[in-house]
Design a protein that fits this description.
Number of domains: 1
CATH architecture: Roll
Distance between the termini: 5 Å
Shape: elongated
Radius of gyration: 16 Å
Oligomer: single chain
CATH superfamily: Hotdog Thioesterase
């Protein structure tokens, strides 16, 4: 996914404010899942919610206002009870700005209890996962 940080997302130093990277990664994760027909609306209609239980980020270089950045989102393994995502954020020159990862769990929308990954999610991911390289899914 590519985006340009907006003026309101930078701090007084002219750098993208650090908390905005969480939002960027959330958007990139959402767009990757959308490619598999797993958008948030569809998941909620199927009584599935996926809260984030961890998010970690390493900042390497700052991004700036209106600088085109790309976020590559990778799923290393098919999910079982937890869904792990990795993010690589780079600028147009290919410099790494940050690396991040997040973990989500599958939760029943009504009971709010954790559950195993629903079969329909595995079915939507499986073919592309195996086709890509049998080890990961990636989108940029």
């Amino acid at each position: 996914m590519k985006l340009r940080p907006r003026y309101g997302e930078v701090d007084q130093m002219g750098y993208v404010y650090h908390a905005n990277y969480v939002s960027y990664c959330h958007q990139a994760r959402t767009e990757l899942l959308r490619k598999f027909g797993l958008n948030d609306k569809y998941l909620e209609d199927m009584n599935i919610m996926m809260p984030v239980i961890s998010f970690n980020i390493d900042y390497k270089k700052p991004a700036h206002y209106d600088e085109l950045i790309s976020i590559t989102t990778t799923i290393k393994d098919l999910p079982k009870t937890r869904f792990h995502f990795e993010f690589l954020i780079c600028n147009e020159e290919g410099h790494i700005l940050s690396k991040a990862n997040s973990t989500l769990v599958f939760v029943d929308k009504k009971s709010r209890f954790p559950k195993l990954v629903p079969v329909f999610i595995i079915n939507k991911l499986q073919a592309s996962f195996e086709h890509k390289n049998k080890h990961s899914l990636q989108s940029s």
